[in-house]
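Narrative summary of target 7.
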Amino acid sequence: MKRIAIEEHFSTKEHADQFRLILTKEYPLQEVVEAEQHLHVEVRWLPASKYSTGNANILSGKILEVGEQRIMEMEEDGVDMQILSLIAPGVQVFDAATGTSMSRKVNDQLSRIVQKYPRKFAGLAALAPQDPQAAADELERAVKGLGMKGASINSHTRGEYLDEKKYWVIFERAEQLGVPIYLHPRMPSPEMAKPYLTYPALATAMNGFGAEVSLHALRLILSGLFDQHPGVKIILGHLGEALPFWLWRLDNRWARMPQGMTIKKKPSQYIKDNFFVTTAGNFSVPAFLCAHLELGADRILFAVDYPLESNKEAVEFVEALPIADSDKEKVCHLNAERLFKL
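Modeled conformation, tokenized:
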């Protein structure tokens, strides 16, 4: 069975070097990384630095290598194609000018990779929402000029969320282009971070990632974005950041809210109409079955979260799922081919 993995990461040396320069000055949760005494996803892929460990050096090599070595590993583990996106937090930690410039450089390099290996890789554009109009223009350039299949945005940008109207130009452009946006996790915003600091591991993939992105997704829904732009498609990783589990309660509590909640449909209906979820980094059969029952096989896509997770483990997980072969085909490749026009 063909398998297209849609949340697979890379970086460039220039991006890694630029990120490392600002890390100690601008990273809002540096104390989390230091207190935890191991490397969080937003720093552990950096090339050799004061944060490096043996595992970090291995990971940094994998994140920067997008060629024959990666393809060999994919083929050995049963992954036919990767949809590549820049590792979190992408270009969103830079100032607007630097982020916009870096996004163009990253997207140009990703385009060259895809052109060299078109049967193995496709790409999601990196965007810098710090300048929303420039981000929308870069999305159009990346899709029309470089062949990108959508974009990846790493949740909040310096503590701001995409439900703010100034960012809607990005969604409007994505709708016009007919491409999805992957809303990828990162640590909670500075305003939300304090409760995590007592137990720093919570701020990472253990809990903070899912809490951050599920909040962001619900903000988008309640803002009315999907009423104004019904063609916008959002992808969430980790089997939907727990939102499939909460659909009944979301609707139940929304119905009891006072006047002023002006969205036209139940919150669950937007999740079913405008969202897709992936298996990236959540290889749990019960969690998958929850998403499958609530959303259906047409809304779930295979992903690994490489190199942060194992291709082999992801493939073994999806192959063992107790679902019909026809649904498994949708999850493994048919949905990706339809959504990304592969």
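The radius of gyration is 19 Å.
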